[in-house]
Amino acid sequence: MSRLLEGLVEAFRLIISLDPELLQIVFLSLRISIMAIILATLIGIPLGTLLGLKGEKKTRIINKIIFTFMGMPPVVAGLIIYLILSREGPLGVLALLYTPSAMIIAQVFLAAPIVTGLTMVGVRAKGGIIEETARSLGASSALAAWTVVKESRFAILGAIITGFSRVIAEVGAVMIVGGNIAGKTRVMTTAIVLETRKGNFELAIGLGLVLLILSFIVNSFLYNIQKGGGKN
């Protein structure tokens, strides 16, 4: 118990003093995760909208595949990306393994199915009625689809936030493809694992607190947005 209290005190000191090592890890984590969720959003929202506007019977197999990938174990995702990016893999010539780019690819692989699946569910909940109404008013297919996206924006926002929560807390996949290299590919989750193994609980707890704070901020933001949407 005393070790935990000492660790919390030292962790708050590191955060308040803006410890350079702590900040470097936090900013790299945010850069990788934000880039990954942007790419996952660019993939997932159009695909999820397209699938959501089609009949469920027509996309049953694709739905099952997406839902399977939504629950994919991170270490499996990391292994797949590792094999693709390794020297013997199809993209080995790009030399991306053990770089932030490889970590972004792994996180996109994890987040894109989540954004796609939740967007599809949100669009399908009321997309058919909205699309029919828009088309009856003379809207083109593209305009009708855009109308559905706007009306489903709160569900889509939830999909994006859920995807971001998945990648910011990810450890297995990014450790496999990133290697946890200090100053290069070490992010919050992998640093927590390393520092805990080294017995450096202060930095580990500090990183854990930052993760919790970021999670609280993101979830609070989502709650406020959805609460505001519920009033409309």
Q: What would you say this structure looks like, in words?
A:
There is one protein chain. The chain has 232 residues and is mainly alpha-helical. The protein has one domain: Orthogonal Bundle (MetI-like fold). It contains ten helices and no strands.
What would a concise description of this structure say?
By secondary structure, this protein is mainly α. It has helices at residues 2-16, 20-53, 60-70, 74-85, 100-136, 141-151, 153-168, 172-178, 188-198, 201-230.
Mean of residue pLDDT values:
86
Give the topology string: H per helix, E per strand. Answer: HHHHHHHHHH
Largest sheet: none
Q: How far from one another are the termini?
A: 49 Å
CATH architecture assignment: Orthogonal Bundle
| Rg (C-alpha, Å) | 20 Å
Secondary-structure class: mainly alpha
What is the CATH C level class, in words?
Mainly Alpha
| CATH superfamily (homologous) name | MetI-like
